[in-house]
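Task card 7
Instruction: Convert sequence to structure tokens.
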Amino acid sequence: MSRQTYLVSLYRIKNSKPETSLMTFLLRQLLCLLLLTIFQLPIDSLLKAEELSTAPEGAFSIVVIPDTQHYSGRGTKKEPESPPPVTNPTFETWTDWIASNLQRQRIVFVSHVGDIIDKNNRAEWAVARRCMDKLHGKVPYGISVGNHDMISGSGDSSLFQEVFPKSRFEKFDWYGGCFTNSTGNQTVSGNNANSFQLFEAAGIKFVAIHLECNAPDDVLAWADTIFQKYADRNVIVTTHMDLGPLNKPKSSRDYFDAPKGRMTWKKCHGKRGNTSQQMWDKCFSKHKNLFMICCGDQSRTQALRLTSTGKQSNIVYELLSDYGVHGLRVMRFVPTEKRIEVRTWDPSKHVLCEKTKFVPDRNQHQFTLQWNLK
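Output:
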């Protein structure tokens, strides 16, 4: 058991509800002191175990929210016959934590990788809106549209557009705009389903491009114009599908065991849709200012990273995070030391994710990237 696990255990023991038995209370306190002695931990470690370390002056953080499709209550997949209304305690906890740590972590941007909801109905969208409202007007953010956020992967994201339309964001100077479908039917790909945001931190300029799952060619052509218009900015792309099983799984075990990397299969937009590999070949690989791609979608992969090289010799970090209820990503940028400290943090348990059942390698959850931004 890790040192941090002991710290959290100590915190819970120390702060659990008092018992009626004096002997139980004294034994609990004695156990705290014994563990502190054995592991040579200072008393104030109990308090430090509660939170992620504070971002130092000069650093800043970007938070990536993985898939939040874990809803409970009436009509959900988890509890279809449940009387209580729909809730998503994990999503609530995550956005609560982000909102309360904006200053402490120096959070300058938040990105959601998509699959915001699970069943694409208004009850779940209402909960998602309530969760994201906690960040609205407090920090710039963008949302990628996942396959669960569409009508059967058709590309129709009308409910997403109803809850998160461009009109919701146009008043903010950090909102760059969105793709407009030339056919006039904005239910497919339009009205903020593909968007971009502009922000700056420590004198470094960024543009975040949020693309829907398996974005079609016309959307990629629009993204090309954003890359080109903001050639002086460092670009982060968030799109729902990128890394996972290379080929479409033929059995359930393939989601776990088959070779993984940039995916060559798709879920959305039918023949018009592009696979992750096609999105890379047609768009992403061409642009020198791209340095990171964030994605989700693959809960049976959970965490994966790939370092790629664009056609102009730029390094691109591709990062998958889909942790279910077990945490989000806090990426701390440290300009003076040219590094990005990527931490997978569970706000529900106040612990770093050291390993998961599917991904026991700590280095997939807690790692540092070299950084040479403009």
